[in-house]
Write a structure and sequence with these properties.
The protein is mainly α and 189 residues long. Helix content is 41%, strand content 5%. Strand 2 and strand 3 form a beta hairpin.
């Protein structure tokens, strides 16, 4: 008896169309150059290994590109190829903790026309979409599977190139807030 029969799983005859490639090679190469997890603080990755990381991701993005291409995906590929030609000395991307803390977008708030700017797939085509919002802009929504590799290499939004690791300055208090704070300070002093 097969697993499907034993667990009463119906075989779906319609194949799932996806343009997302397997990124296991990219993540394997990334492990070779990511010095944030090593114990040797003086360790620096080899330039050939750094080049391989950028090339594997650009190849993956190239396989996602539809005929005609254009737009964001082409600019990401160009940027990755430029980085591969003169690789940086270290990975300048975000941490796994940063990716874990990205705002998740609930499925019920997605519209039918919403799609990932990288792969072009509509979010609602996926049975269980994992859509994240980047902190730079409320409309910068991405499939986590598409944006995570870019962010592991670049700490910038691929759409507006804002640095996502820069801390925003807290707004200065207004005169009313300062007056209110003064009242409480005297009260508890």
């Amino acid at each position: 008896m097969s697993y499907e029969v034993e667990h009463n799983i119906k075989n779906d005859p319609t194949p799932q169309h996806t343009r997302r490639p397997d990124l296991s090679t990219f993540f394997s190469n990334l492990e070779l150059v990511n010095t944030s997890t090593t114990q040797n603080s003086n360790a620096t990755p080899m330039p050939a290994d750094m080049r391989a990381v950028f090339i594997t991701l650009s190849d993956a993005f190239r396989s996602m590109r539809q005929e005609g291409g254009g737009g964001l995906l082409d600019s990401l590929i160009e940027s990755l190829e430029a980085d591969a030609d003169s690789p940086p000395r270290e990975v300048r991307g975000v941490s796994d903790a940063f990716l874990d803390e990205l705002d998740r977008v609930p499925k019920k708030s997605l519209k039918q026309a919403d799609s990932c700017p990288i792969c072009g797939n509509p979010f609602l085509d996926d049975k269980f979409p994992l859509v994240v919002r980047l902190p730079c802009h409320k409309n910068h929504l991405f499939d986590l599977e598409c944006i995570a590799p870019w962010l592991k290499l670049h700490a910038t939004c691929p759409m507006d190139r804002k640095n996502l690791l820069e801390k925003k300055e807290p707004p200065l208090p207004t005169k009313e807030e300062e007056e209110e704070d003064g009242e409480y300070d005297e009260m508890f002093a």
